Amino acid sequence: MTPTVVLNNGVEIPRLGLGVYAPSHNHEVQQAVEWALELGCRLIDTAAAYGNEQEVADGIRASGVARRELFVTTKVRNDDMGFDTTLRAFDESLRKLRTDYVDLYLIHWPVREKRLDTWRALEHIYQQKGARAIGVCNYYQPHLDELLATAEIMPAVNQIELSPYCHLPDVLAYCRQHGIQAEGYAPLVRGLKQHDPALVAVARKYGKSTYQVLVRWSLQQGAVTIPKSVKKDRIRENFDVFDFDLSGEDMALLNSLHDNTRIADDPMDYL
């Protein structure tokens, strides 16, 4: 089992989980969830926009792992944002996931006209115990400043794209300062940097793969991280990262690799 961290409302979240963003591989998501749970993973991160909440539910059911042992995250899609529409979308996610609650419900993107009303809906869902924790995705300082000015409940999590190549220490520092747990997606940069000579050299030093180094880097930033894979060997490899620590020197080297490589939109486009 992976280590956990306690969120600002006292709920524990595993520090490492499985991301299931796989639009061209949704038929493989159920099997990936089963493999991950078999290997000890207990955090599954999906979203309405991924179109695979039902496959996640099938994987959980087939695994035989009790629901109470799992941490299931999903997100409201952009087209469903707004107070009433978010409540309806949440009910639909519960139906597809075949559960009566989720562990974490997130706003997927900070859509300008609807994000504050959507947050009010998340607060309502939390107060009604539909979600054990609520949070946001892809929020940088301006989005968080706006939200915290009116929110009655502090977001528990801010899920952002995070890798050495998309590393914004100011956002991480802001989250720490406000007690918001950072969670990083796309830690493996979809394989785009696997042959980067600097990354390869660090991996060789520790006898690990470049992917394992990227996952370890995210963890040592203090972030929860959710590498995506639908391959059993890769899932196993991604979770085999708790037997080594990157040195301060190597962390500094990896921190210097930032070149704004992204696999998703820039949240600053949502101002």
TrEMBL record:
One of its GO terms (molecular function) is oxidoreductase activity, acting on the CH-OH group of donors, NAD or NADP as acceptor. Substrate binds at H108. Residues 22-257 form the NADP-dependent oxidoreductase domain. InterPro entries: AKR (IPR020471), Aldo/ket_reductase_CS (IPR018170), NAD(P)_OxRdtase_dom_sf (IPR036812), NADP_OxRdtase_dom (IPR023210). The active site is at Y50. Belongs to the aldo/keto reductase family. This is Glyoxal reductase.
